[in-house]
TrEMBL record:
Protein name: DNA mismatch repair protein MSH5
Keywords: ATP-binding, Cell cycle, Chromosome, DNA-binding, Meiosis, Nucleotide-binding, Nucleus, Transferase
Recorded superkingdom: Eukaryota
SUPFAM superfamilies for this protein: DNA repair protein MutS, domain III, Nucleotide-diphospho-sugar transferases, P-loop containing nucleoside triphosphate hydrolases
Pfam family, one: MutS_III
CC per GO annotation: chromosome; nucleus
Name of the top EC class for this enzyme: transferase
Entry annotated with the keyword Nucleus: yes
Amino acid sequence: MENEQHIIINIDYIDSKMEDADMIQNDNSSYTTTRPSFINSLDPSTSIQQISNSPIDSRESTTWDVESFLNSENRKVTFENDDEIDEGAVEKVFMAINIRKRKLGCAYYAVVTSTLYLMEDIEESSPYDVVNLLRYQIKPSVIITSSRADESFIQILQSQDDTIPAQTVVEIRPGAEFVYASAKTKLFSIRLANQQMENNKQEIYLQLSSILNMESVETICCAGALINYISRIKMTDELQDNQLLEVLTIEQFSFSLQIFEDESHPNMHMQTKFKEGLSLFGILNNTRTVIGKRLLKQWMLRPTLDLAVLEERFCTIECFLKPDNLEISNQLASCLKHIKNIPKIIEKMKGKLNVKDWQYALQFTFYCLKIRNLLRELRRVDNVKILDRIKEIFVVSDLNDIGSNINDVIDFDESVKENRIVIKPHIDEELDHMKRTYDGLDDFLVAREISTTIPTEFASTLNVIYFPQLGYLITVPLKPEWKEEQDFQINGLYYQFSTATIVYYKNDKMRELDEYLGDIHGLIVDREIETVQKLQDRTLEHVPLLLNASAVCSELDCYLSLAESARRYGYRRPFLTEENILMIEKGRHPLQELCVDAFVANDTQLVGGRGIINEENAERDEENSTTTNNFYNSVILLSGANYSGKSVYLKQVALITYMAHIGSFVPAGSATIGLTDKIFTRVQTRETISKIQSAFMIDLQQISIGLRNSTSRSLLIFDEFGKGTGSTDGAGLFCGVMEHLLKRGRNCPKVIAATHFHEIFENNLLSNSLPITLVTMEIVRDDNDEELTFLYRLVPGRSTSSWGTFCATIAGIPNHVVQRARQLSQLFSRYESIPPQFNDDREHRSYATCELIARKFLELDLEKKQIDVDGFLEWADRECFGTRLRPLTLTLPKPLVEFCNKPMILHQIEGLVKAGVTDIVLAVNYRPEIMVDLLKNYEEKYKVKITFSVETEPLGTAGPLALAKEILAKDKSPFFVLNSDIICEFPFEQLRDFHAAHKNEGTIVVTKVNEPSKYGVIVNRRDSTLIERFVEKPAEFVSNKINAEIFPKMATDYQLHAFDLEGFWMDVGQPKDFLTGTVLYLSNISKKQPQLLANSAIDKYVCGGNVLVDPTAKIGKDCRIGPNVTIGPNVIIGNGVRLQRCVILEGVRVKDFAWVKNSIIGWHSTLGRWTRLEGVSVLGDDVAVNDEIYINGGCILPHKCIATNITEPQIIM
């Protein structure tokens, strides 16, 4: 095996995924050694000779025409399950790992390949990044480590996240198992598949030294502990699924990060299956064999630095790409389809093989010879060393001997029929004699002879059958009336046993046959097993040939696979050099170009070791530099708009470099790539909730690994490092990393970094004198259409903006969000203050009110001895939307508070519109613009014009009329005057007609009350509607009709009439009256519009009637609601809730078993479980009441949380 150097790849994610190593699914099918044999006749004179051993060499000579055998239609062997490998199965892997004195060693054993892998020792310390990467790459089933390891190291091994298999078991083994001397002894004790038995210790040591670095002490110790663990498992038979623990090969691997990931099956019942999606491995893997696929995966996991190896791979791929060799390449690929997993078949030969395995072995020998012949026809095969290896390994005589042995001995057609391995005739004379005897048995004459000795009713249905171990039996169909044992008795026959349909007997003739012939079928099977075992022994003599031939077939499969990908996708041969450069012309991303209609190729020019050159290394640098390289730097800073292709460019450079180091052609016009020892990337964060670290901490760890392990020959790819923290800290960290790398001088690695930190350039955070190449992705901006066109072309220079808002529009972000983002971006850029934003009008109004009160309070001179606090409070009461319906009016003006799921003012507007009103004047004394948006919708809906009459100071009822004089006086049409907190049926049409009939100046609506002493009343003429005078709250009865407004002057002039209001009326300006008005309103609609209320016949929660529920509200189970309850939009009522005589406004959530009576629950409030509210309690906007709280008469201001009981009426501020 070649002792190669390998690249350390640390790639967190570069659009490349691949599945885990294939898992061989053991074939559990067994040979069938017994079967029923139906006999029609038997010659009693037949004798059975004593079976003697007949050597396989005594067979008759035959001509092996394997091709005709494989191609013959009547010889095609099919199997129910022809899949040799379950490629989605999870591989069983044992890993030993240990650290001592900062040296990390690791070894692992893959059961599926029977291969022991050993790593070279490397430096490692806390936080053990390399350990986590090894766990992620190898995905071990079991991890063993020393009990002497540090506790923090063991905790890392025992930690779990979604990148590590959840079923991984960590076992702590005694430190004595990790001893170098004993570990070497255990390694020397392993007998490999191609190792001669007579090798002495010195020869074994030399052989292992050519494979392994025996100076990697910790890794050797881990290998010894792992071999000891495997031996213990083998002895205790703890391994399941009949998997064999044998070490066929030993390989050394350098630390590398598997840049591929599995995609689990979408079916939850097949989560152990994996498939390969769009990935680098997916497009390079065109292998036809399982062993080829596994080898290609090893190539991709172990990029090499050996120029000779890479040159051989390039030359071989180039040979297969030549047009003259295309047909031969296709034929070779067709032959490889028939090459199966020979190492696994050889491993199974230590037990037993089934028919399918022998078929595969036969195919392997034939197609190996065919491949050897095809390769002779290749043209222009300079430096194609695999041809020489095939000529050397594919020994025609040995392969022909193996194939002839298998083909001459095994009868595949009969084997499939018998579901066991059947031997051909003329191989063993005694076996042939037994088969002739067995096949010549005829039970028909025997059955006829027996039928003459039993009752005639059974004679026509009996049969004679043979069961191995049981002998010859007579069968008779079971009759339904046979129940007891005596029913089965037949003269001349002895009952043996019965099934559901057949009864089995013996007689003297059957016993005679048992004694005379015995278990001949079992003897035949045993004899055939002995013959097959001899065939296996002869085949095992050629194990080195078979393993080497299988290995070279897998290598040929990889070359053909890479050549096919290069031909299909237009890849070119790269030129690898010892010079530390990276020159790519017209490079492409191998995956991205498959997902777009047209891909824009870009160039890359980097030279390693071109950092800040000081006096100490300037002279040496001049010696190592070339004229061409002086034009290029080691660091490229890439800026540009989002969506412009920066990340794709970064990944394509890393992938092209990586592909060149596995021996693949690359997606580029041309590429000159210096040997690169490591690739470190910070491209995409693998976030997981199971990790303690934040996303930014994971980014920092990735950067830390790159800084600590990179050399001048390394390639570092950073994509927007620093974006996970504040812009100032992020930009500072980014600049610090760049300066650190540049200060390495001749040891500066090749770096490509993309960033959106434009302040780096604007504020000169990185000096212009630094050897940095600035590039950007070109865009075209259309200022008129405010659009961007992405050209995806790399050009010199830098970008001044990321154009994030344009990209947000492309991504489908709502336009109002994008516009707001642009406003904020402009404000940030000008360092201006940001005005507050509100979710809705209610927040806006609350903010405006609070701002006004705060500013008014700041105007008070608190140093004065006498402060007009009362005046300030009076002003606040007047200006904050009224005081009587608090705390609801702290959020909304009173006219907009919902009464029975509709704003108060809307009840009036609908009545006015119905009466033909076209102009509405709303008299307010504070900030009418707050109501504009809502009332504007009403204007459009009802086709009316709403204007505002604003009072700068209170002017009484007539004040707003005077202020609206110009509107009211535009014509002589009558107008209505009403208060916004009055609720009734609003008979505006009748009032209009009544007013027109009496032809006087005014009409006032009056209604009868039970206690007139609480109100101002009117006195009218007897039998007339004309009002004579008003009386303010009379001490003795003069009338029981109250007026909504007082116009004494009109009454004095006898120009005012009274209109009696029928039905209900209520001033709902106070909480108690609000609830009373709700009762009256619901009672009225129950008589006139009952369909608006919940139907107790359908809605089982209705209790007592008069329940108004918005269609969007949700009612739980077992609730009792009513009477006189209104429930607003988007309300959620839990289970078992009791509501009575209450108002539930929009967005309220009432949890299970709450009890509410005589209360108003404000918008978006929450009542906890088992809460109880009563006594005219009023909750403001967004009040939260905890579970099991009692509130009696509480007036709770908005945005409060109630955690204690309120037993007496009070205001909670």
